[in-house]
Specification:
92 residues; alpha+beta; three-stranded antiparallel β-sheet; two-stranded antiparallel ribbon; 7 strands
Length: 92
């Protein structure tokens, strides 16, 4: 399990779709605790990166903190032929 700034990352790469806001533990689509992060959403990731960029632009004092957060993530599997892609786990 790989954590970045307190959040368990999906496949050790990116933040998952859902976390409990109190415990920072991953949750499933029903809001129930999950043992591991299960997926990421390219749309959610884009929204978060946009919000963090806006935060840096409006409040430069947060630049270092924001950069530390987003540089902990791996973006290698997010881009496929110039298109953002999501990921999920398949259950057997």
């Amino acid at each position: 399990m790989i954590y970045a700034r307190g959040l368990l990352l999906f496949a050790g790469e990116l933040r998952s779709r859902g976390y409990d806001t109190r415990s920072l533990q991953p949750i499933d689509y029903g809001g129930n605790p999950a043992l591991e992060a299960t997926d990421w959403s390219a749309l959610d990731l884009g929204r978060m990166l946009t919000a963090l960029y806006n935060l840096k632009t409006c409040h430069p004092e947060y630049t270092a903190a924001v950069d530390k957060i987003v540089l902990d993530w791996s973006y290698l599997r997010v881009m496929r032929e110039g298109i953002l892609s999501s990921a999920t786990t398949a259950k057997d």
